[in-house]
Amino acid sequence: MAEIVHIVVCAGIVPDPLQTLEPVMNPSGPGIKNEMVLPAVLDPWASSALYEAANLAAKHPGSKLWLVALGPKAKLQQVMMTVAQKAAFELVPVDGPIGGFPDAHATAAALAEAIAEIPGLDRTKLLLFGGWESASRGAGVTLQLIGERLGITEQFQGVDQIEVRADGCFEVLERVEGGKHQASVCAGAPAVLGWATGNLPEPKNNPQIGMSNMRTIMPALQKARTATLNSDGLKYLAVTLPSQQRTTRVVKDATPDAIAREIVEWMAE
Questions:
Q1: Which CATH architecture has domain 6-226?
Q2: Looking at residues 241-248, what average pLDDT do you find?
Q3: What are the angstrom distances between the C-alpha of 160 and each of 54, 189, 207, 214?
Q4: What does R_g of the chain's alpha carbons equal in angstroms?
Q5: Are 76 and 69 in contact (CB under 8 A)?
Q6: Which of 74, 98, 99, 242 is the most buried (most CB within 10 A)?
Q7: Domain boundaries in the chain?
Q8: Which comes out higher in pLDDT, residue 137 or 118?
Q9: By the 8 A CB rule, do 60 and 4 touch?
Q10: Which residue in 208, 218, 168 sits closest to 189, CA to CA?
């Protein structure tokens, strides 16, 4: 009998990467200029985690999949109209701010609280998925902090593949230097997996799955809990776009050591 798993995917919504993003200082703190009118998408890193989670759940009958997403309800509804057609899941929305400036600890606290209150979630079968990195909250620690708040110590980052075995243990391939993978075997759930790109392409839109998902997504959005992300001790003095600098020279027959030394000297300036 295949092992039943309960998978929770943590995801945020971000402005479409094709848009020009300009940071500004608002009365409440830093943000993105015209952020609420920019078209939004599901975080690309989290999207890979969602597709891998849906594929894993389909291989193990009886498994359940939840998508926990943080963002303004209006933006979540817009993004879910597309995402709902990609995979079958149950949405757990959290109404809160988006952007790259909220503190990772506050974000993790809000998401961990929402996960802890999911009805029917069996933590002994829990696999917590999310992006290894993020297009908005790229601190690289948010998923780890969520796992720690939930008491999950088995954590894997940069995951490209997972294979659950019949006895409940699973093998994970994590990215390491040199284009190689580290293979690890975990005795079983619970565990945290921060996904890289995985091995699956983006699924095709399926209107039947979309209609089925929307029956539960809309009521969930109406009941979405509100999260206030307090950033105690975190203060931004200014936010600006990085200055562009380009100085090009053509040099022949330079050794790798000489090139590296010049780059280090340039960075030190």
A1: 3-Layer(aba) Sandwich (3.40)
A2: 71
A3: 15, 18, 28, 29
A4: 21
A5: yes
A6: 98
A7: 6-226
A8: 118
A9: yes
A10: 168
Query: What CA–CA distances, in Å, run from 268 to 82, 129, 251, 255, 259?
Result: 45, 38, 21, 20, 14
Query: CA torsion angle for 193, 197, 199, 205 (degrees, to 10)?
Result: 100
Q: What is the DSSP letter of 138?
A: T
**Among the residues of 126-240, which ranges form H helices?**
142-149, 207-222
Please provide the average confidence, as pLDDT, over all residues in the chain. 84
Number of H helices, E strands in the chain: 6, 12
Dist CA 94 CA 92 (whole Å): 7
Q: How many residues does the structure list for the chain? A: 269
More confident residue, 242 or 225: 225
Residue 1 has pLDDT above 50, yes or no: no
More confident position, 265 or 35 = 265
Is residue 38 helix, strand or coil?
coil
What does DSSP assign to residue 99? S
Prediction pTM value? 0.80
- Residue-wise pLDDT for 65-115, tens only, equals 999 998 888 888 888 988 999 999 999 998 887 766 777 788 888 899 999
pLDDT for 133 equals 79
Question: 49: Cβ–Cβ under 8 A, 6 or more apart, which residues?
Answer: 9, 10, 11, 129, 130, 131, 193, 194, 195, 198
Beta bridge partners of 163: 171
Angle, CA of 14, 15 and 20, to the nearest 5°: 145
Extract the tokens encoding 58: 């389909």
Could you tell me the maximum CA-CA distance found in the chain, to the nearest angstrom?
65
Q: What is the DSSP string of 215-232?
A: HHHHHHHHTPEE-----T
Residues 115/79, Cβ–Cβ less than 8 Å: no
